[in-house]
Amino acid sequence: MTFPEQEPNLLRTGHAACAGCGLAIGMKLVLQAMGPRTIAVIVPSCEGAIGGVYPNTSYGIATIHSAFEIAAPTAAGIANALKIQGKDDIQVLAFAGDGGTFDIGLQSLSGATKNNEDIIYVCLDNEAYMNTGIQVSSATPSYAWTGTTPEGNPRRKKNIMEIMAAHYNPYSATAAIGFPRDLQQKVAKAKDIRGTKFIHMLVPCPTGWKTASDISPELSILAVETKVFPLYEVEDGKKYTINREPRGLPVQEYLLKQGRFRHLKEEQIKQIQMDVDEEWERLKYRASHSGLNNR
After folding, report:
1. How far is residue 86's CA from residue 238's CA, in Å, rounded to a whole number?
2. What pTM was estimated for this model as a whole?
3. Which of 54, 131, 160, 276 has the fewest CB atoms lying closer than 10 Å?
4. What is the pLDDT of residues 107-142, one digit of tens each?
5. E-assigned strand segments in 203-251
6. DSSP 8-state assignment for residue 6
7. Measured between alpha carbons, how far is 253 from 257 in angstroms, rounded to an integer?
8. For strand 232-235 and strand 239-242, is the pairing parallel, antiparallel, or unpaired?
9. Tell me, what's the pLDDT at 294?
10. What is the dihedral of CA 171, 77, 8, 26, to 10 degrees?
11. β-pairing, 120-125 with 197-202?
């Protein structure tokens, strides 16, 4: 068996990502695990910009640029065309950000998932509309600064994993760039499953999160270890598996490394901690009652 990290780098040097971009790191890891027999759908967003300007590209696989809101159905159309042609050795992958997944593309993603289209959909979640000026999205956490919430986002982050679970699709998983083996194993697992596979990946953005460019992997690790972003899988919308038991660090160790949270008051940090603890207990309950043992 060839391990994903031994595959060629399919996000080549010369791309236009910002220094320390978690999205570029995440895409590189995903593409390594997917391999060259892959067609990817790219939407107008950071992942569309970093590939370069036509006729040049940093992507080492065939890519199709679709409209912002239709990554999933575009990928589904390609997958069905390949099926008609009898080409069953090519995987179809859709990349979209949190804006194109949680918000503008949610309707089309829901339709494709309900039809159980044979695609892998990767949400590159940097928790705001970074490519167009750092505007708030449904993935922006509570109290986080963005260009459109200068005093902090008043709403909690949408739980996209539970929305996907409600579709009873065969496989959904969370992933973080600070745990590359876990991420690539999940991509490899998704490749062997027929139907709609969804991977929700946290990809820190130094520009939008107001952080140093060399700590993106560290931030994603802290998000997991503070239970802000647990690593888990959901199969058939019912079976939950927690992939890593967090160390249970206080949330402020994650929050206060980011400029977007530096305005937080003590009571706001306490509220975030309460919300995180509540969500973790809910996840543990689902995992313990779904018939699967935690890893």
Report:
1. 32
2. 0.95
3. 54
4. 999 999 999 999 999 999 999 999 999 999 999 999
5. 232-235, 239-242
6. G
7. 7
8. antiparallel
9. 42
10. -50
11. parallel
Quickly tell me which residue has 């975030």 as its tokens: 272
Let me know the angle formed at the C-alpha of 151 by 43 and 278, rounded to the nearest 5 degrees: 75
- Model pLDDT, residue 16: 87
**Three-class SS state of 290:** coil
User: Going by C-beta distance under 8 Å and a sequence separation of 6 or more, which residues neighbour residue 130?
Assistant: 46, 97, 205, 207, 208
Is omega for the bond preceding 55 within 30 degrees of 0, making it cis? yes
Looking at the DSSP bridge assignments, the partners of residue 146 are 149
Beta strand segments in the chain, E: 38-42, 62-65, 91-97, 120-125, 171-176, 197-202, 232-235, 239-242
Kindly report, residue by residue over 174-228, the tens digit of the pLDDT.
Answer: 999 999 999 999 999 999 999 999 999 999 999 999 999 999 999 999 999 999 9
Residue pair 38/4 in contact (Cβ under 8 Å)? The answer is no
Selection from 181, 159, 197 nearest residue 243 by Cα: 181
**How many CA atoms are closer than 13 Å to the CA of 19, on its beta-carbon side?**
6
Domains of the chain: 4-288 (3.40.50.970)
Handedness of CA 189, 181, 282, 269 (dihedral sign): negative
Tokens representing 260 are 């977007």
Q: In what order do the strands lie in the sheet with 197-202?
A: 62-65, 38-42, 91-97, 120-125, 197-202, 171-176, 232-235, 239-242
